[in-house]
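FAQ: What does a ligand-bound record look like?

Like this one, built around FE2/S2 (inorganic) cluster:
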Amino acid sequence: MTEVKDTPKPDLRTGFSVHEIPDGGMVVGRAGTEDLILVRRGAELFAVGAHCTHYHGPLADGLVVGDTVRCPWHHACFSLRTGEALGAPALDPIACWRVERIGDTAFVREKLAERSVQSARRGTQAQTALTSVLIVGGGGAGLAAADMLRRDGYEGALTMISADDSPPYDRPNLSKDFLAGTAQDDWIPLRPPEYYAERRIDLVLNSRVSSVDVRAKRVELEDGRSYGFGALLMATGAEPVRLDIPGAEPSRIHYLRTFADSRAIVARAASAQRVVVVGASFIGLEVAASLRTRGLDVHVVAPESEPLERVMGPEVGRFIRGLHEAHGVAFHLGQSLSRINGRQVTLSDATTLDADFVVLGVGVRPSITLAERAGLAIDRGIAVNEYLETSAPGVFAAGDIARWPDPHSGNRIRVEHWVVAERQGQVAAKNILGHRERFDAVPFFWSQHYDVAINYVGHAEKWDAVEMDGTLDARDCAVTYKRGDRPLAVATISRDLQSLRAELTMESEGTK
Ligand SMILES: Cc1cc2nc3c(=O)[nH]c(=O)nc-3n(C[C@H](O)[C@H](O)[C@H](O)COP(=O)(O)OP(=O)(O)OC[C@H]3O[C@@H](n4cnc5c(N)ncnc54)[C@H](O)[C@@H]3O)c2cc1C
Ligand code: FES
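The answer part, i.e. the structure of the complex:
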């Protein structure tokens, strides 16, 4: 493994000694002005772009698994043969170059045209008699599904209906860089406007589906329009839990789920000095961090004794609290909100805080009303099988709404993770086209607090032991959550490769 350094990179067109690259290892170089990695896998050599197409993560710090490379930052997976983004969160391919080996020297030759990357995939496309696919929901799962349907050669009608007024966007960014003011508006859409026309995706925005008839294969919208479908993907996500707070003027209360919500908080923050954030979950804390970056006084109110305690345990919780306190956030833990009167926010212990506005981040509920009314099997979410198909044949569900049989924990689980939503969208798309691919990805999420990124692989609702490798204070550690001898999940800080390796181990272990 070679790290990307600022030192000049060798031009790999002039040749590189193959024996200097260990099996499964890589070197960073360039072809002219473009950065690439040269990867050796057994006798094979691959040259592909050095940066992930999600957020530009350095693939040289990632992990080679078979003929793929995984990104160290958020675990996107790329084919070394074609450059294709096989696993979200990256959706676009990386470039590929032809490599020629002469004796012990590998020469990077011409860049392969993207056309040939696509045609390499065309041979694996599913044959389907399907003529129309409808996706309800324009979030991470919906967009990734539409993208995969077209990538996989589906040429029939494709409609995506979304209650949102914006085309699909990077929802995780809404509480991070965008809210902090370090990402501009135009970074947020997942795809440029012309993408939908080019891929013939009929994107119907600002439109809420009010009913689904799975027998007649039709959905109705609130405004009376209706759409038929051959196959249906439900990807309606989740919505924030809304609290009824005595005395609160709605204009002082903000929730954060949509791009519009985030823009409204940004606009409000521009003339504000003090905010109360209710909830010490990932979203609440990311909002706190971003609004501190904007210079606001931030108070966090939450019932737990440590933030994130339920998900990550008290030790990580204490560290996260300390990190936020060091950045000036004041915590009011063991407290709830009892009343808001103008600028005055009263807590359960009668403390009063002055605030220009309040952000409520007290959890979400899966948006399953449509599915319930349609008669689909429900299990605290929409119940799906390992192919992400619901109880109605030809109707699939993906993302925050789906509860699936997770082969790693052996339980039926539902999570609220961006990468899982996108990957489920991708697998559902393949299964709509008849591939019969199991969804068996190990859950993964990340969260960003100032300059500290936490990566988490696996799923641990309850554990009986926590193993710490490294230290939280040094911001260099891996925390393993175990039941008996079995690791259920691993949270890492500055240990990206360890996180990728833990994911790989969990994948290979499957159910025990
Ligand atoms: C601010 C924020 C930050 C986050 N940060 C992270 C993070 O750092 N890491 C991480 O792993 N996860 C993060 N998440 C969670 C992640 O964004 C979700 O897990 C993910 O968006 C789920 O995708 P989805 O497609 O299932 O649902 P969504 O992205 O919520 O999309 C649902 C779509 O369905 C539409 N819809 C709903 N009902 C209807 C209807 N009746 N008719 C038509 N359309 C409908 C909605 O308008 C929306 O377009 C974050 C979430 C938020 C809100
Ligand atoms: S930067 Fe590579 S997955 Fe996010």
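Follow-up question: can I read anything off the structure? Yes, for example: Residues 136-142, 161-164, 171-172, 174-175, 208-209, 235-238, 256-257, 283, 367, 370, 399-400, 416-419, 421, 445-447 surround flavin-adenine dinucleotide (ligand 1) (CB under 6 Å).
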